[in-house]
Write a structure and sequence with these properties.
about 140 residues, mainly beta, Immunoglobulin-like, 5-stranded mixed β-sheet, 4-stranded mixed β-sheet, about 40% strand, binds copper (II) ion
Length: about 140
């Protein structure tokens, strides 16, 4: 009985580890389509240099905008949201496929990622950057 419980725990741990999201990474691969980020959740170590590999396979222009901690662009990205941007790669054209780097925020937390093209947030083009403290 104890042995089977132990095996069950080991199995569950493996399942959780394999689908839950890996630990933090410094390389993010994101595909943009009309209208979502895939994946739409990223975990990075605080303060590290991050490489973002972007591919826009959609038909229209997209953006990868990380909002400051505790701020949100809301349902529609407006001009005044510019003041709350942590980092951004704007105007990624259809067919765009390239790499850029940025430095992850030093403060751990969940940062909103949005696309500012009109109507895209409402269509679901939002994501989450989870910043975790380094070991
Ligand atoms: Cu978009």
């Amino acid at each position: 009985m104890k042995r089977s419980l132990y095996l069950l725990i080991v199995l569950l741990t493996l399942i959780i580890a394999s689908c839950g999201g890996a630990g933090p990474t410094t390389t993010l691969n994101v595909t943009m389509t009309d209208f979502q980020f895939t994946p739409n959740q990223f975990t990075v170590p605080a303060g590290q240099e991050i490489t973002l590999n972007v591919t826009n396979t959609g038909a229209v222009v997209h953006n990868f905008i990380i909002m400051n901690l505790g701020t949100t662009a809301g349902a529609t990205y407006e001009e005044d949201d510019d003041a709350n941007v942590y980092w951004q790669e704007r105007d990624i054209q259809s067919g765009g496929d390239f790499s850029v780097t940025f430095t992850a925020p030093t403060e751990p937390g969940e940062y909103e990622v949005v696309c500012r093209t009109e109507g895209h947030i409402a269509s679901g083009m939002v994501g989450k950057l989870i910043v975790v403290a380094g070991e």
